[in-house]
Amino acid sequence: MTLKTELEKRKQEVEEILQFYLPEVNSGRGSLIPAVRYSVLAGGKRLRPVIMIESYRMFGGSSDVIRPFAAAMEMIHTHSLVHDDLPAVDNDDFRRGKKTTHAVYGEAVGLLAGDALLNLAYETMIQAFRYNEEGDRIYRAAAILASKSGFSGMLGGQGLDVENEKNGRQNYSEEELLYIYEQKTAALLEAAMMVGAVLGGAAREQISLCEQIGSKIGLAFQIRDDILDVTSTQEELGKPVFSDAKNEKTTFVTLYNVDQASAIADRLTDEALEKLRELPGDTGFLEALFREMAGRKS
Questions:
Q1: DSSP of 96-153, one letter per residue?
Q2: Strand, helix or coil for residue 94
Q3: What are phi and psi of 195, to 5 degrees?
Q4: Is this model's pTM higher than 0.90 or not?
């Protein structure tokens, strides 16, 4: 099978998992649940849960314990996008080729939908304890996902990014920019690799290697996003382009140029692939996926 076919197969698996864990719409309950479902089901590549599931199976995992973690991962990621799009942050009206949550349901409901998704992620994740698995693995996996989503991960990076932007900070060094990217983008990809590995029974050294792989892939992914913001179109990308310039953000394109930024992303991807090949199991799908992510057009 081609990568496109394999990825679509795995993406469909994630869609089924999300449908299972998302709350159903009940009449008389207001717009919050519809807004949550709209946010999650509006599309997307589902890369993070796909990587998590693949990491789990690569280490020999075969049960359904991974399902609530995969759903929680996508809920956390979507929560971050919903809040990123709000008027107080990036003020974007399009995401994944559709109107953003706040553009459809209003700013207040959009804010609450993001909050609800983050809470729902933890509600969903703890359902893993229902499975007849080693409780210690589930606890460790949950701790990783919570940490990589919080102050020392995604939310910490987003907070620093937004605060600097609102305070008029425009110029970063490469070291400062990498620090923000490591937290706000790479942390969740690290979590995807690590959670799968922990639940699959990986050794401590292998889990550390998964973290390094996720870091490099995450940084490459964010740098590619910088590039697409100035080289793609809204139709291809599914969200507004030139938004970084509009918000006067420092990116790898402003630090260097498109070609140099692309070379850095390629180098990080190659380094991640070298480390990936040190892991046991069949790494073929992840190798192909990471190469695809490095050269993506949307």
A1: TTEE-HHHHH-HHHHHHHHHHHHHHHHHHHGGGGGSSS-HHHHHHHHHHHHHHHSTTS
A2: strand
A3: -60, -45
A4: yes
Q: Are 108 and 83 in contact (CB under 8 A)?
A: no
From the centroid of its chain, how far is CA 84? 13
Chain length of the chain: 298
- For residue 20, the model assigns a pLDDT of 97
Distance (Å, whole) CA 259 – CA 239: 22
CATH number of the structural domain spanning residue 220: 1.10.600.10
Token pair of 218 as six digits: 């995450």
297 residue type, one letter: K
Supply the pLDDT for residue 285: 96
Closest to 50 in 3D by CA, of 6, 91, 83: 6
Listed residue (295, 291, 256, 271) closest to 3, CA to CA: 291
Beta bridge partners of 95: 98
Q: How many domains are contained in the chain?
A: 1
Distance, CA of 45 to CA of 27 (rounded, Å): 30
* pLDDT confidence band for 133 (50 / 70 / 90): confident
Look up the domain containing 185 and give its range: 3-294
Q: What is the dihedral of CA 193, 194, 196, 201, to 10 degrees?
A: 140
**Closest Cα partner for 198 from 188, 208, 189?**
208
Alpha carbon 96 to its chain centroid, in Å, reads 14
Dihedral sign for Cα 57, 59, 62, 68, please: negative
